[in-house]
TrEMBL record:
Subunit and interaction comment: Homooctamer; tetramer of dimers.
Gene this protein is translated from: pdxJ
Annotated protein name in UniProt: Pyridoxine 5'-phosphate synthase
Pathway annotation from the record: Cofactor biosynthesis; pyridoxine 5'-phosphate biosynthesis; pyridoxine 5'-phosphate from D-erythrose 4-phosphate: step 5/5
Known catalytic reactions: 3-amino-2-oxopropyl phosphate + 1-deoxy-D-xylulose 5-phosphate = pyridoxine 5'-phosphate + phosphate + 2 H2O + H(+)
GO biological process terms, semicolon-separated: pyridoxine biosynthetic process
Lineage top rank: taxon: Bacteria
Gene Ontology molecular function: any one: pyridoxine 5'-phosphate synthase activity
EC code: 2.6.99.2
Organism: Thalassovita gelatinovora
Positions with a binding annotation for 1-deoxy-D-xylulose 5-phosphate: 14-15, 50, 55, 105
UniProt xrefs under CDD domains: PNPsynthase (cd00003)
Keywords: Cytoplasm, Pyridoxine biosynthesis, Transferase
Primary residence: cytoplasm
């Protein structure tokens, strides 16, 4: 199978806001990071407005909608409050993620199969408003089928377990996770879903995922923002872009 097109890079700027919020001031500014990411070749900016506002704030979303020239991928939990905010802004893309207050980051994929009816009703007005709706899910056949049935246009496969097993040297688990992601990316594509992937990706783990021909977009944040401390934000993004382009040709 030939690559289906250019692999897009969405740069997640949440952790610029995490650093800002550690002191409660105005810097570092996530909007400035977003503009630099655009310059560095990001195809989109991703930001997660969490219910507890631990990093990105409502004002950040207002600002991003105003200044961005690339699309905003707005990550949010499937709550009434977030639906209202999304419908006010009508961002290019919405990615529904599960959210637990006690978690450090988005730990698992969304449970779509058990909430099919509610989620189908939840995403309908978002789609009608012109937003591309994506669902962040595990590489699980049942969840993918449910995502297709509720009318999502996109699924984003959770690469966290694949990345964690690599970092911890559990290479059998790593190979198994990679195979599941590969199989489910092909399966989702066969159902007509656009396939994205993300969570925990680094320079060491990005290429095998970028090599899946069905994957159209990767969303990467934490590693890039960390690496920016050492190389600067633009070179950190450019290197990720280079690694992605290397495998996609
Ligand atoms: N995709 C989704 C749906 C996410 O929730 C996150 C984390 O906010 C990411 C991608 C990016 O993950 P990371 O910051 O670990 O690169």
């Amino acid at each position: 199978m030939q690559p289906l097109g250019k692999l897009r890079l969405g740069v997640n700027i949440d952790h610029v806001a995490t650093v800002r919020n550690a002191r409660g001031g105005a810097y570092p500014d996530p909007l400035r990071a977003a503009r630099l990411a655009e310059q560095a070749g990001a195809d989109g900016i991703t930001a997660h407005l969490r219910e507890d506002r631990r990093h990105i704030s409502d004002a950040d979303i207002d600002g991003l909608m105003e200044v961005l020239s690339v699309p905003l991928n707005f990550e949010m939990a499937a709550t009434e409050e977030m639906q209202k905010i999304a419908l006010r802004h009508k961002p290019h893309a919405i990615c529904l993620v599960p959210e637990k207050r006690e978690e450090r980051t988005t730990e698992g994929g969304l449970e779509v199969a058990r909430e099919e009816n509610r989620l189908a009703h939840y995403i309908a007005p978002l789609r009608e408003a012109g937003c591309r709706v994506s669902i962040f899910i595990a590489a699980d056949r049942k969840q993918i089928e449910a995502a297709a049935r509720i009318g999502a246009q996109v699924i984003e496969l959770h690469t966290g377990a694949y990345c964690d097993s690599h970092a911890e040297g559990r290479m059998d688990d790593h190979d198994r996770e990679l195979q599941a992601l590969r199989d489910m990316s092909a399966y989702a594509h066969s159902l007509g879903l656009e396939v994205h992937a993300g969570h925990g990706l680094t320079y060491d783990t990005v290429q095998p995922i970028a090599a899946f021909p069905e994957v159209m977009e990767l969303n990467i944040g934490h590693f890039i923002i960390g690496e920016a401390i050492f190389r600067g934000l633009v070179p950190a993004i450019e290197e990720m872009r280079r690694l992605m382009d290397e495998v996609r040709g």
